[in-house]
Amino acid sequence: MHASDAAAIPFGLVWTSIIAVIGYRSYARGDSLHELLWFAPFLLVAIHLLFGRFFVESLQRSKTYYGVTTKRVVIVSGLFNRQVTSLDLGDLDNITLSERSNQSGTIVFGPGKPTYGGLVFGSRTSGAPLTSPSFDMIQGARKVYNQIRDAKARTPK
Length: 157
Known about the structure:
By secondary structure, the protein is of the alpha+beta class. The chain has 4 helices and 6 strands; from the N terminus they run αααββββββα.
């Protein structure tokens, strides 16, 4: 769950309710199948807002890999096309850790905090990129953060 879910979940519920009511009224009036199919795209968006985005994000996370070497941090991601982001530790000025009580967290490389482009649907799968590359919602975040800081300290500038 992301902070943006506080807005996305109620929005998804309202969207789904509106589409369900309009669709049901259309069905109750005896509208043709052609007229009822007009609601299908809106219903698919509603299902994605409520449930689908969690499955898509889970699938994307299962295809994302993070690595730390003595000189670089590497992020390999992408569902259909592989994207490799490689950052030189010597060039990283800002490394920020946001940790949760269960020791999971996000490590952001660069200025700023992770944001979701202002989209209310905000997730990594919504197409709204993070402002800076990050190790997003990883387990043992503080341990990884310390490994990165140690490796950075040993890297000549």
